[in-house]
Amino acid sequence: MKIGVYICHCGSNIADHVDIEKVRETIGQQKDVFLVKDVMFACSDSSQKEMVEDIQSQGLDAIVVASCSPKLHLPTFREVARRAGLNPYKYIQVNIREQCSWAHSNDHKGATDKAIKLIEAGIEKAKRSEALEPIKIDAINAVAVVGAGIAGLRAAIELADMGTDVYLIEREYFIGGRITQWDELFTTNQTGREIITKLYHQLISYKNITLFTGAEIVETSGSVGNMEIKVRIKPRYVKPDCVFDMDKFEKAIEVCPVEVEDEFNFGLTKRKAIYKNYPGEFPEVPAIDHDHCTRCGECLKVCEGIDLEQKEEFINLNVGAILLATGFDPYEPKEGEYGYGQVPNVITLQQFKRLIELCPDELVYAGRKIHNIAYIYCVGSRQQNGPNRYCSRYCCTAAMHTALLVKQKYGDIRNFHFTRGIRTYGKQEHIYHEALEQGDVVFQSFNDPLCEVGEHNGTAVVKINDFLTRGKPMELEADLVVLITGMVPRKNNTIAQLLKVPVGRDHFFNEVHLKLRPVETVIDGVFISGASQGPKNIMESVNSALAAASKANNLVKKGFISIEPTIAFVDADKCQWCDKCAQVCPFDAFEQVDYNGKQVARVITSLCKGCGMCLPVCPEDALQLHNYTDRQIEAMIEDLAKAK
Amino acid sequence: MNDIKPKILVFSTEKISDPAIDLAGLLKMYYPATVYTITVPCSSSIKPRWIMHAFDAGFDGVFIAADGTDCPYSENCTENTSNIVKQTQDLMRQKAMDTARLKMAAICSVCSEAFVRQIKTFYDYLINQKQNENA
Known about the structure:
heterodimer; A: 644 residues; Rossmann fold; 5-stranded parallel sheet; 34 strands; B: alpha/beta
């Protein structure tokens, strides 16, 4: 076997702490090492060309590159091997920088000895490496976008524009998501509804977008490239071919005897069972709330467009990828948390935003005209003792912006902010200064809880030991206490379980890598975007939606997909089909098949993600992972253990 | 001067603990040079036979830098990796080996400080054990 070894100086990063000459000499004496070279920068164009020439002219069977972390240049050198006609999996990367020269720059001898052992172990792995071919599977150029909020709408439009068919699936009867609940938005002062209206008109101009409302994915099968999804569509109870006459629907709303809490206004108002959340909402046709309608038939008497006989529908769709834009829920404070639900006039930021819109002339809550407003920040975020350790990012800006708006709209308002330190980052810092300039008062504390909310003669009283005045106790009588509540993951997150999308410790969707692969999940073909992956403001949500749309389109547009061949494989002779591998596999990648008259496990290549969780559970030791075989791992162990 | 330099094999994971170990190097957070890493996709993929092979081949300690709750593959990773440790410890007991020679700790992708702290503590423990054996 002919192995070529390349030892990188990385300028002085490696060479200053590792005796390269000694390493080269020692490695050159290894059996099967046909060629060993030290290079200034292995990743440079000239070094890459030299490697290609060596592989071709010397007929190398495998190469080992000892340089930096594989996180940086694994794809670079795989491509070098491919260009030279060598199977990319016959190249092994050895990390002698991050895990050797830098980690032991205080111990040159130790670093040199370690570099030698690491390279020797890499050679042992290379000797046992297999030529693997990427697995190619057909891909349907269609993407299911789940959630028609700002992120889902932007992603759908972008995908359609790039030539991909889109099925946009929205659980609610209307599109737009959370931002339709907010009036004016920072920084443009456009309203959420204006933005959604614009996007809806764009959306319907694309023939390759199909919108489903009141719809939810209930089953999935298949894998990347060809995923079959079953969608349940709730009846809207409106005839699809009716002549739309809003006056008649208005009458139907008027006569409907059912009143329920209006979720759109966070319980501040009631709505009917037949409803629209606001007049310009899309789709334009009202919907009848399946869960609350009593089928009394009053609406039928005044509006012939209604059909109470409609049934739930199920449709099957085939898509190449799925893009999740399922958003967030606002944090719901616990009973008694900063007086919520116990002290009068304590509401959340989300309720306050709706209240402002519902009060056109003067700000009134529970019959009381509001002058003094206390804003308590970080409720449900940055918890010192609770599960939500994260910062919800958008709320400082949203609170400051709301405080400005409320003063502009009603005039006679005094704002008092109770904070843990304001985080109006980036351009949003202007808004903080604007609020200070208009006379808003800011208190700060790092205590948990931040302050106390009590009651005195029917009025809420907020007490804080203010850090900004050296811990001086302050007390404020507030007409209204607004809890600045952050973002939490969706309560109903069945889609995550269906698709087996991993969630992080904060229970938001988990990306493969926060910085390098921020919209991909380990489930091939499933992308995440917007606030479903963690707190984000609208700009950040749209950024991630566009990134996810681009990744999804790039994956399916070619008509085929190449997936990593480093997956599990079964030794059918050893396997006795005990089902343990299938039970532990998070991706359902095992099936039971017949082999020479006995039942054995087989890996479904398109579903296996190469995690290797199945390996240790097999009682017959019949499972291995390509590129991490027992022979490779044990040979590396033996070599490393020989170190003095 | 202490001549005892225990050899530790670290099983780290591509996406989670390996970046932390890389970061420790980048930040020059020194740890002993007789600590060697083999990277695997997930800490739940480590076979007990590999760990036992490491002890048989001459490693003084094996450290599993586990994915913990950050595992991108499964929420059950912590439990699965713990099972691997338990199974291996059973094998170690059968051979009358000190089960503390196998250590597991969750190392997140930026937990370089935790990694170095854990490794140093483990290294010191192994030195003490060797000194006791030699005494």
